[in-house]
Design goal:
The complex is a heterodimer of chains A (about 80) and B (about 260). With about 80 residues, chain A is α+β, with helices and mostly antiparallel strands. In chain A, about 10% of the residues lie in helices and about 20% in strands. In chain B, helix 1 packs across helix 8, helix 4 packs across helix 5 and helix 8 packs across helix 11. Chain B has a single domain, classed as Thiamin diphosphate (ThDP)-binding fold, Pyr/PP domains (Rossmann fold, 3-Layer(aba) Sandwich), CATH 3.40.50. The chains are: A alpha+beta (about 80), B alpha/beta (about 260).
């Protein structure tokens, strides 16, 4: 079961691919089948196995602030700090 | 094997999103340029400190020339290199406001060297975000005062030579020697761990100004994939292997009062 997921704002993404290299799970990729209106191939989450942990590393390195990160509330995973 | 999530489930909460102090408009920066990271960190720090209504941002000349468009704060545009002088005037006439200059290395270390030096020497209660990518980005990759020896740029095609153009300028080292400076640190934006450290430094620098302590500057080693002729990922590696050895990261001057703020934060 995925503990997290991200949504990439495709219109703002410039396809720099820094998120794809930073992702510890290696589940981000550049979507070469899509072009945004500026001609960039945006990044997207390719996570059929539900491996995204919602660690937010992709969002921290994104130069265009176009990644929103969601994660299951930590309390429900048993322990950890309050979000 | 479950289906890939297309939207968050009811149990999920947002843990990271576009900061409110950062404008929704798209920036003109090249793909992979760390100006965008520096912008986001500054916006996050402004949001977390709850100071958006009090901030006045002074934009430079250089790639960040439109910075005043990219933040949801009041802002203005200074002549090349003069952001610290303009910020001085704003801060002295509106001392309750928080005045931030955002400058690149061409702007701050070359044409604006006198302004930044004297603003620091006077101990102006302003905060400077100094983006150092060792090149003039906007005008096409010419040599900057911070370019490394041997670095090939469009105006030093054979590599920078000390005999012709001297040595790289180290602004943190220079400014930390002045009595008026309070918080002078150098950080890097080349990976997630360092980006988080940079965010902390920016937050502390703003708190230094909120406490009225004196001049603060955070230097951020940054990438310029376009003018370095590298991919965004390779450019991050170049920061780590080339820039950091020449510009060591660290706290160059943190006064005791600033240290106390750092701990409290």
């Amino acid at each position: 079961m995925a503990h997290g997921m991200i949504i990439v704002d495709e219109a703002h993404c410039k396809g720099c691919a820094l998120c794809t290299t930073a992702c510890p799970q290696q589940i981000l990729e550049i979507d070469t089948q899509t072009l945004n209106d500026r001609g960039y191939h945006p990044a997207h989450l390719a996570d059929p196995a539900g491996r995204c942990t919602g660690c937010a590393i992709c969002a921290v390195i994104c130069p265009d602030a176009c990644i929103t990160v969601y994660r299951e509330a930590r309390a429900k995973q048993g322990g950890g700090k309050d979000a | 094997m479950m289906q890939a999530l297309r939207e968050p489930t009811a149990e999920m909460e947002v843990i990271y999103q576009h900061p409110a102090a950062l404008s929704e408009c798209r920036t003109h920066y090249c793909p992979g340029c760390t100006h965008g990271i520096a912008h986001r960190l500054l916006a996050e720090a402004i949001d977390e400190l709850g100071i958006r209504e009090r901030v006045i941002l002074v934009a430079p000349v250089g790639c960040a020339v439109f910075a005043y468009e990219y933040f949801e704060v009041d802002g203005c545009e200074a002549a090349h290199g003069r952001a610290p002088a303009m910020a001085t005037g704003i801060k002295r006439s509106c001392p309750e406001n928080l005045v931030i200059t955002y400058q690149g290395d061409g702007d701050l270390a070359s044409i604006g060297a006198a302004e930044i030096l004297h603003a620091a020497a006077r101990g102006e209660r302003i905060t400077t975000i100094f983006v150092n990518n060792a090149v003039y980005g906007m005008t096409g990759g010419q040599m900057a005062p911070t370019s490394l020896l041997g670095q090939k740029t469009t105006s030093s095609p054979a590599g920078r030579m000390a005999t012709l153009t001297g040595y790289p300028l180290h602004m943190c080292e220079l400014l930390s020697g002045l009595q008026g400076s309070t918080y002078i640190v150098r950080r890097s934006l080349h990976d997630v761990r360092h980006i988080r450290q940079a965010k902390k430094a920016i937050t502390t620098a703003l708190r230094v100004q909120m406490a009225g302590l004196g001049f603060g500057m955070v230097e951020l080693l940054s990438s310029c994939p376009t003018n370095w002729g590298l991919t965004p990922e390779q450019a991050m590696g170049w920061i780590e292997t080339k820039l950091i050895p020449q510009y060591p990261l660290g706290d160059y001057k943190v006064t005791d009062e600033a240290k106390a703020l750092e701990k409290a934060g």
